[in-house]
Design brief:
mainly alpha, Vanadium-containing Chloroperoxidase, domain 1, two-stranded parallel ribbon, about 70% helix
Length: about 220
């Protein structure tokens, strides 16, 4: 039978994506009304940014898009898949720590329409309370997948256009539906770059350590 021929062990690493619901529960614990002061990072740029309810759609499909990108990385380069999971986990936990000590909020417009996009906006606002804003999880994860693609060995014209375009749209959506401000988005980008730089340093040191060990074994022989 087909299911018996299916290479289960080959796809077993995808089970690591179960970290997402665990991280989701942790997020829920931090997304409560804070007892300390809540800060505002709203700038003139944010005040000038219009509210566009149609961006609720790309904002809403964000997590499924991240899943799809990671599965795509898994098929193309399993090491990049592991790297993506590690970066996401580190960045998410860092965000949660920030939320616990530095809560920010974004003023939300009143949604009055009854059309599908207005209903979707109301659902977003009801589901995601406006207390976990800086850095933006939507922004760091969307930037992460396109950043990893840019440095991959399998990038091409079409996946660059698709992933860069979709990630950019999701990042913009956080601003246009007034879920985040520009500083939230920039902090998400910088967070990914910081974690990537740290991982690169660690990888380089481990590689050099393995090389030294091989040289010692060679000379010792």
């Amino acid at each position: 039978m087909y299911w018996r021929r299916f290479e289960w062990r080959k796809y077993a690493p995808l089970a690591l994506m179960l970290v997402f619901p665990v991280l989701g529960m942790l997020y829920g614990w931090t997304n409560t009304r804070p007892t300390a002061d809540v800060y505002s990072l709203v700038t003139d740029f944010d005040r000038a940014t219009p509210f566009i309810k149609y961006f609720a759609l790309p904002y809403s499909v964000w997590i499924f898009y991240i899943y799809a990108c990671l599965v795509y990385f898994f098929k193309k380069d399993v090491n990049l898949y592991y790297k993506g999971l590690a970066i996401y986990t580190i960045c998410a936990l860092t965000c949660y720590l920030v939320y616990m000590v530095f809560q920010t909020t974004v003023p939300r417009p009143e949604i009055t329409g009854g059309d599908p996009f207005s209903l979707l906006m109301n659902f977003i606002y009801e589901r995601d309370r406006p207390f976990n804003c800086f850095p933006s999880i939507h922004c760091f994860s969307s930037y992460m997948v396109m950043r990893l693609l840019w440095g991959s060995s399998f990038k091409n014209r079409w996946n660059m256009i698709l992933i860069t375009g979709m990630s950019s749209t999701i990042i913009l959506s956080t601003l246009f539906i007034k879920q985040h401000v520009i500083l939230d988005a920039l902090a998400g980008v910088l967070l990914v770059e910081f974690v990537l730089a740290g991982m690169t340093i660690v990888e380089t040191q481990l590689k050099e350590s393995r090389q030294r060990q091989r040289q010692k074994r060679t000379f010792g022989a």
